[in-house]
Amino acid sequence: MSAGLAQIQAEHGYRGNIVEIGVYHGKYLTGLATTLLDGEKAIAIDVFDDQSKNADLVGYDEVGSSGIHDLTQQAFLDNAKRYCPNADIAVIQRSSLEVRPEDILSHGDKVRFFSIDGGHTLDVLLNDLHLAVATLAPHGIISIDDILNPQWPGIITGVVRFFDGETNLRPVAFVSNKLLCAFEPFANFYRKALLDIAPQAIQRRDVEFSNYTADQYQDGDEYDRFLASING
């Protein structure tokens, strides 16, 4: 459903770059990049070949995710060329702990869609979330991966801690093990947009989360039909 929301942003003229921390082979980022408007960029932040900087490496090996060792920047670029050949792609091959807001903002626009799928420890998650907030456009969306993954409890610990503080960011919806968030008042706009995209995919409304509520979705046929309509 993330690509659906990114497409709605484009249709409403809500401009900005698209960023992902932790792109792996680029499946999620290239999907989002298909919605880029003229002058917008997709920015990939990842250590890629330099896995010595990956704080999660031991954890990945413990859970059997050996494919992380095969990750290369070239593999991502090959996929980007295949799935979003017209997209303007920028790569920051660095640990997100070494990335500053100006490194992202130097590419022109603020960010309209920021995906966080990098390190899974509490400290790295909070670093990435603060980086996303610092670069996000007022109409932007933040997607946090593995929010309910029991293998990586640092994610939900960090997100709850973040929302327990003072912030204008609000949870919008749980979708496919991701938490989508946006600033007020756009959070309500995106809630309604998700209902328009896939009304049959919603499981529960107003699920309690930290000091707020969010809707809960599962992927469904209506979302697949929506994607087919914008791609074909």
From TrEMBL:
Origin: domain of life: Bacteria
Entries under InterPro entries matching the protein: SAM-dependent_MTases_sf (IPR029063)
Any Pfam family the entry gives: Methyltransf_24
Family matches, as SUPFAM superfamilies: S-adenosyl-L-methionine-dependent methyltransferases
UniProt-recorded name of the protein: Class I SAM-dependent methyltransferase
Native species: Burkholderia ubonensis subsp. mesacidophila
